[in-house]
Amino acid sequence: MPIKGSRVRSAVMWNALRGVLDRIAPEAGQSDVVDVGGGTGGFAVPLAELGHRVTVVDANPDALAALERRAAESGVSVRAVQGDAVDLPDLLGPDAADLVLCHSVLEYVDDPGAAMAALAGTVRPGGSVSVLVAGQVAAALHRALSGHFDDARMVLTGTSGRWGEGDRMPRRFTRETLSELVRGSGLRVAELHGVRIFADLVPNGLQEGDAGSADALLALESVAAVHPVLRDLATQLHLVADRLPSAEGLGGRPPRGSKP
Ligand SMILES: C[S@@+](CC[C@H](N)C(=O)[O-])C[C@H]1O[C@@H](n2cnc3c(N)ncnc32)[C@H](O)[C@@H]1O
């Protein structure tokens, strides 16, 4: 069956997540997964369907209500906890998860460094954190390709990667700024993928033009995702970070409210 555009857009992400889960739970056993800012369960519900124990922490009670409905319709159980990302250690306790997801959230939080430290304190030694963020370079590319050249310049020169007051995205990241944020929390950067490189540049008509083109695009995306130049142009940057299995403490900033 040909792969439709939306699946091409998410395939790189899911391939990476499957790789992380295989590493964490090689015998296909259950893992404890915490999805921070998991919203209505776009990742949480499929992960629960795979058999993992999933908790979603989200600030928005309406999103959590929709998540609970979606989980019920899929016949799975997902724990929903209302709260802020920076309060994870208080909400769930330390070392609560084998895998922590934080997808499309760091763009919106008040203090990304504090949120990242909270994620790092929630993942167990030997576990991983999966972070997905909006890419700054891609935003400049897309604004320029639609004729908004001043916007594109502002995205590239401003520190938060925005094109001004009309830009609804509070901040974007480059490979460098994201990696620095993750390393500051004491985690080790393990993998970085570009998600949606060509898929967001090629018109939909070409992506689904014939039976083979979506499959060929997916194969291209998978190669480009880890290409040292092309991955930086992706609409989203996906980073997998590991908490080392040793007994060493996290070297980064302590979560909010923790004792020095
Ligand atoms: C763009 S949605 C992403 C949803 C989901 N992670 C996904 O990738 O489909 C952002 C989510 O983050 C949540 N959020 C924003 N700021 C948050 C914070 N400080 N703490 C917890 N959740 C937050 C929002 O309520 C929303 O559900």
Automatic annotation (TrEMBL):
Keywords (A to Z) from UniProt: Methyltransferase, Transferase
Keyword flag Chaperone: no
Highest taxon of source: Bacteria
GO MF, one annotated term: methyltransferase activity
Organism: Actinomadura meridiana
Protein name: Methyltransferase
Listed InterPro entries: Methyltransf_11, SAM-dependent_MTases_sf
Listed Gene3D superfamilies: Vaccinia Virus protein VP39 (3.40.50.150)
